[in-house]
Design a protein that fits this description.
Length: 406
Amino acid sequence: MSAHDPARVQALREALTTRVVVADGAMGTMLQAQDPTLADFQQLEGCNEILNVTRPDIVRSVHEAYFAAGVDCVETNTFGANHAALSEYDIPERITELSEAGARVAREAADAHTARDGRPRWVLGSMGPGTKLPTLGHAPYTTLRDAYQANAEGLITGGADALIVETTQDLLQTKAAVLGARRALQAAGTDLPLIVSVTVETTGTMLLGSEIGAALTALEPLGIDMIGLNCATGPAEMSEHLRYLARHARLGLSCMPNAGLPVLGADGAHYPLSPAELASAHEDFVRDFGVGLVGGCCGTTPEHLRQVVERVRHLTPAPRSPQPEPGAASLYQAVPFRQDTSYLAIGERTNANGSKKFREAMLAGRWDDCVEIAREQIREGAHMLDLCVDYVGRDGVADMRELAGR
């Protein structure tokens, strides 16, 4: 039995395009502050998702605290309900169960607040990154995708109004989560907003070196509803990346920063950004970049969000007229289809039909030689590469998987 309500979902879609929607802040620290016991964790210490089943009262109290601060929506306690995180506790088979339980707890809290004052409250189903990066070969892409589908199925059944693929560090992992979510929505015969929030480090790129332009070029065609940033930094470090998205993304924008960059002290990490500073930053993002969904990540509290609500509730996101830049992206950067030199050079030698040298290396499985041919073309000035592995009698899918990854 799904707790899905099409009218409520439609109201969320409308809100995301016409006003500022405020989400919640940090979850983990508030759960830990209530000192759950080892028994509460079923002996799996630190697996917060277990609390959805054993101590829903603790989880619900966190949601209640944020709703009491005036937020429009809360995220489910399912950040680690994925293959990588639950496999570390040897319980990957519990992905759907824990996802559904997390969504139900949040749904109950949201509905109780709506019943009191009639104002709609929404639930964002959190889909976290896990610890395995498929681009680095930590786990097969299909394994991750199928586990994300199980994660999303639980969230949909439990009553989430939208799915948020968040804190993503590897674009291939992001894609696995988005396509897993899409499959789950299709299987459920429903259509929820799909939000993607990437994490850009202080280096200015995602963990694997992807620039924000590469993320937009790779993710926008997947049919998502919103793109934004969360975690890793405070709002100050996010503004240039938000500026880029505001200029080029056809999608709605979201932003959920940490309470500044952590400062290490005697008692561990401390996040220095005050509630007033976070609220002021969000007001600027709404006015300058048209951001429509705001919230907080590590170090943010109900008081941070209360002040954010006060500052942005009556604002309308600044109108944007994005100028999308058609292009292609590697893992690292986007290359616009723009011809500043007199031509756009496409290297054609990484082609089994056009280059004897490449074909022979591929047939012999000399992958490093194939990559060297590609590098040679880049050195000679190619802006892009045309990789073609089609050859009679070969398994093209296996060859493409081998070479595109390299």
